[in-house]
Amino acid sequence: MVNQNLNQIVENFHENRLSHAFLIETNDQEQVLESLKNILKEINCEQDYQNDCKRCNLCHLIDSENLPSLVIVRPEGQSIRKEQVMELKTKFITKPIYSRFNMYIIMNAEKLNASSANTILKFLEEPEEGILGFFLTNNKENIINTIKSRCQIISNYYDMDQEVDEFIYSQAIELLKEIHLSKEKAFLYNKEIVGSLTKDKLQKVFQKMMEIYFYYFQQCIKNLDVEKFFEVSFLQKKSPDYLIAQLKLVQKLEEELNFNVNLNLLMDRLVIETR
Predict the structure, then answer these.
(1) What is the pLDDT of residue 50?
(2) Which of 10, 93, 109, 242 is the most buried (most CB within 10 A)?
(3) 163-172 long-range CB contacts below 8 Å, 24 or more apart?
(4) Cβ atoms of residues 104 and 134 within 8 Å
């Protein structure tokens, strides 16, 4: 989901007035990062972009942070070092192959030290065509003026409880689709899930899955029309015994998350035991 404040980046792209650099102030940089990934998929798509279309490899490369033309810079220790910025500049000497733009995202941009900040200014003072930059921070006042004045500034704050609930719900729905409808892709999706979720969030995803299984169990034994969780309405065709077995399986795996378990193996067990 892309917040409306961030969506102006896409609107500017379609109106051919896209800035070369953005400073984004937020209370959740990881959420912004995920939104930016979706934005970058859309503005780099050579086709008619559709969310999660899987028609080419671009979306997967962006999600997994393996697209050569996308560089995400994170602090090493207490600062972002000059060498990290120099490496970024070296990668952008060549034109992108798989995307329209060379793109960089600097997390915790206030941690640019004097040397690295001066180095990144080259991109901002003499912007080259086809390069997009994003500086993420919790407080724009901690960003040096020479960077701040050369960026389009966006404030993007979240209602944290609502955003977390929506994220957990979407992850639970996608996981249910994968383990019940997908075959060869389910194990690959597991690796993506494990790579993007903390153990605490995975527990919440499992808890939401249990809620959904129990809901469909109730619908089944009461013979009621489905009113919730319509995205996984295929569960309506499952028997009560099957739904209860699935609920118990997910409950068992959710409890195991309280211990030192291998998340990849645990997720694979979810797929195998479901089938």
Answers:
(1) 66
(2) 109
(3) 163/28, 163/31, 164/204, 166/1, 167/31, 167/201, 168/201, 168/204, 168/205, 168/208, 169/208, 170/1, 171/197, 171/201, 171/205, 171/208, 172/205, 172/206, 172/208, 172/209, 172/212
(4) yes
Closest CA to 109 of 79, 70, 86: 79
Helix (H) or strand (E) holding 152: strand 152-156
What is the enclosing helix (H) or strand (E) of 42? helix 29-44
Residue type, 22: F
Matching residue, tokens 């970024």: 88
Closest CA to 205 of 164, 240, 241: 164
Tokens at 264, concatenated: 């990849």
Residue 125 identity: E
Separation of alpha carbons 132 and 134, rounded Å? 7
Phi, psi dihedral angles at 64 (to 5 degrees): -85, 0
Cα angle 25, 79, 195; round to 5:
70
What pLDDT is attached to residue 118? 92
pLDDT at residue 176, as a whole number: 93
Q: Are 111 and 80 in contact (CB under 8 A)?
A: yes
pLDDT tens digits for 165-176? 888 888 999 999
CA distance 114 to 26: 23
Question: What are the average pLDDT values for consecutive 10-residue runs of the chain, which has 275 residues?
Answer: 75 90 91 91 81 73 90 90 91 88 95 93 85 94 92 84 76 91 74 77 92 90 72 90 95 92 90 88
Residue 100 is predicted with a pLDDT of 92
Report the alpha-carbon angle 258-260-263, nearest 5: 90
What's the predicted TM-score (pTM) here? 0.59
Nearest partner of 63 among 107, 33, 23, 20, judged by Cα: 33
Task: Please give the backbone phi and psi of residue 139, each rounded to the nearest 5 degrees, phi first.
Answer: -155, 110
- Closest listed residue to residue 25, CA positions, set 144, 137, 159, 152: 137
